[in-house]
Amino acid sequence: MTSVTLSGACGNSPKNAFAEQVAIALVTADAEQLADWLIPDCVAIVSGDEEIHGREAALGALSDMLGRPDAVTIHHAITHGRTGAVNGTLTTGKTRIGFCFVLAFRTTKADSIAAFRLYRS
């Protein structure tokens, strides 16, 4: 099971809290939760500028790229309108990498994700 540390800064912003939960589900490849949040024909960019179309293909690419981290720490979750960003650190064994997801919400309600881009160090 992956240990999760939240930013602690999303108490007054449901959109920021949602973005934070989406990022956690993405890095842990929580397909069950993401089935509710990623639209079926979502677009993911996980390596360079290559677009991956479809929820299942996007989850497969993430899983291949990130594996199953031992720990996830969220540093910030920021949203505005139909866009959000979440950054943090993944730890697997003794290896730590930074990541950032830029999320495109389907609507300003921010209850589903139309596209996302992953940056990692």
TrEMBL record:
<feature type="domain" description="SnoaL-like">
    <location>
        <begin position="25"/>
        <end position="106"/>
    </location>
</feature>
<dbReference type="InterPro" id="IPR037401">
    <property type="entry name" value="SnoaL-like"/>
</dbReference>
<dbReference type="Pfam" id="PF12680">
    <property type="entry name" value="SnoaL_2"/>
</dbReference>
<dbReference type="InterPro" id="IPR032710">
    <property type="entry name" value="NTF2-like_dom_sf"/>
</dbReference>
<protein>
    <recommendedName>
        <fullName>SnoaL-like domain-containing protein</fullName>
    </recommendedName>
</protein>
